[in-house]
Automatic annotation (TrEMBL):
Biased composition range(s): Low complexity: 1-16
Lineage of source species: Bacteria, Pseudomonadati, Pseudomonadota, Betaproteobacteria, Rhodocyclales
CDD domains in alphabetical order: PIN_VapC_PhoHL-ATPase
Superkingdom assignment: Bacteria
Family the UniProt entry places it in: In the N-terminal section; belongs to the PINc/VapC protein family.
Protein name: PhoH-related protein
Source species: Azoarcus sp. (strain BH72)
Length: 485
């Protein structure tokens, strides 16, 4: 056998490399929207990114049935209908093939909107009568799941029973999550942080310290300072206890400032002193003129309303920082509604303001001995500086140089919260109080409440602060009841 020359061997073509198969692109999902999703958030049409959305005829029917009235639900139904009209008008010839959402949503969504354009007849189980709107939407989901076996078809609904029925029929269903700030409220910003024992050793290298107007300031930088937020409260127990808050932050460099001790009688606020650490933190926020927005969370009896009213009265009547206190709250009853109420706006709101009257009784008792006449005069003076307003008449108003208290703020939607906070004019301070464990509005949860939304979005802003009050100070009975019931 003749030897193969090196030249011939080199010229032999190499075996062709096998081409890598192109990676399969995951199928986009098809989300079928229940009516309550659109009535909860009309902008949900643009919240599904690259996925397609499908709106059944029954969803449009139910939107039409709910569009009358002045309620938030009716307003959202009308807004959802207008947005859908805008989308359809952008490509009227593409209804059958799906209307692209990229242009009307300004590239927020890149999927398509499909409207039901054909009669769908799917045999549902006998226990699900087709006369009910929910069951007709379930029939549409079943039909789409059979027509598109190669892509996920998912029902999106705020109705828990609707989702259970869908899963019982073997269909995919999920809640609308886009408006939820947090999945787990345990992760909600508390406004406080305990410093570890090693904090000063790890971060105190090159620390600067100085005093100004009775406060001590520390400038430091280290591995633990990068996670701190402006106006976050820090504390450390031990031989040298510390209570301070972050006043400035630039990269890893922070400036800490020691607090005013409102637990001491000499610093009392309208006769009230802080009974625990969180109350002291809260009073530092409420009494600081540089803080425009304060949120206080806490269960019943932690002192939210009392501290806020005491701070408000001090700054309205003593230091004249604000002209008056304006108090409002969401009128959602715990039990049955008591119906229409006679009188002026203030008189109609009076039954909802029991908490205000209870706290004023406490504060009026702290004004010193002036006899019955003195106390009566003080009560009249206080009431003349507190205005009670209804949420229904807030739109379009501007409050200048006011101390605005929003009570029971956990029952507000994020949109209502925005409407209220944007009422603040120059020199106004807004304080939101609430307990996210006591939400009375049917469509809100702890994760989607306007109060949770405000706490999460405002954290770290130099002119806002938040404290979650932990300890109840009402009575031993109230504390035990909150714990065991």
């Amino acid at each position: 056998m003749p030897a193969v020359s090196k030249k011939t061997a080199a010229a032999k073509p190499a075996a062709p490399r096998a081409k890598r198969a192109p990676r399969a692109k995951p199928a986009t999902k098809l989300f079928v929207l229940d009516t309550n999703v659109l009535m909860h958030d009309p902008t949900s049409l643009y919240r599904f990114e690259e996925h397609d959305i499908y709106v059944p005829i029954m969803t449009l029917e139910e939107l039409d049935n709910n569009k009358k009235g002045m309620s938030e639900v009716a307003r959202n139904a009308r807004q959802a209908s207008r947005m859908m009209d805008e989308i359809v008008s952008s490509a009227p010839d593409a209804i059958d093939s799906g209307i692209p959402l990229e242009q009307p949503s300004q590239r927020l969504a890149t999927g398509k909107l499909f409207l039901q354009t054909e009669a769908i007849n799917v045999a549902l189980p006998a226990a699900l009568p087709t006369a009910k709107g929910d069951n007709q939407i379930l029939a549409v989901v079943m039909f789409l799941a059979e027509r598109h076996p190669d892509r996920p078809v998912i029902l999106v609904s705020k109705d828990i029973n609707m989702r259970i029925k869908a899963r019982a029929l073997g269909l995919a269903a999920q809640d609308y999550f886009n408006d939820k700030v947090l999945e787990d409220t345990d992760l909600l910003y508390t406004g406080t942080r305990e410093l570890p024992a090693t904090f000063w050793d790890a971060n105190g290298k090159g620390m600067e310290s100085w005093k100004n107007e009775g406060r001590t300031y520390y400038r430091l930088a280290g591995p633990d300072t990068a996670n701190l937020l402006v106006n976050e409260f820090l504390y450390q127990d031990g031989a040298r206890p510390l209570e301070a808050w972050v006043k400035e932050k630039a990269g890893r460099s922070v400036v800490l400032e020691t607090l005013i001790d409102y637990g001491h009688q000499k610093n009392n606020v309208w006769g009230i002193t802080a009974r625990n650490r969180e109350q002291n933190f809260a009073l530092n926020l409420l009494m600081n003129p540089e803080i425009d927005f304060v949120t206080l969370l806490g269960q019943a009896g932690t002192g939210k309303t009392l501290l806020t009213l005491a701070a408000g009265l001090t700054q309205v009547l003593e230091t004249k920082r604000y002209s008056e206190i304006i108090m409002t709250r969401v009128t959602v009853p715990v039990g049955e509604d008591i119906g229409f109420l006679p009188g002026t706006e203030e008189e109609k709101m009076a039954p909802w303001m029991g908490a205000l009257e209870d706290n004023l009784d406490v504060l009026n008792g702290t004004t010193g001995e002036g006899g019955d006449w003195g106390r009566a005069a003080t009560r009249d003076l206080i009431r003349s500086r507190i205005k009670i307003k209804s949420l229904n008449f807030m739109r379009g108003r501007t409050f200048i140089n006011k101390f605005l208290i929003i009570d029971e703020a956990q029952n507000l939607t994020p949109k209502q919260m925005k409407t209220l906070i944007t009422r603040a004019g120059p020199g106004t301070k807004v304080v939101c109080l609430g307990n996210i464990a006591q939400i009375d509005t049917p469509y809100l949860t702890e994760g989607s409440s306007g109060l949770t939304f405000a706490v999460d979005r405002f954290k770290g802003w130099p002119h806002s602060g938040h404290i979650t009050l932990q300890r109840g100070e009402r009575s031993r009975l109230a504390d035990y009841a909150a714990e065991v019931l």
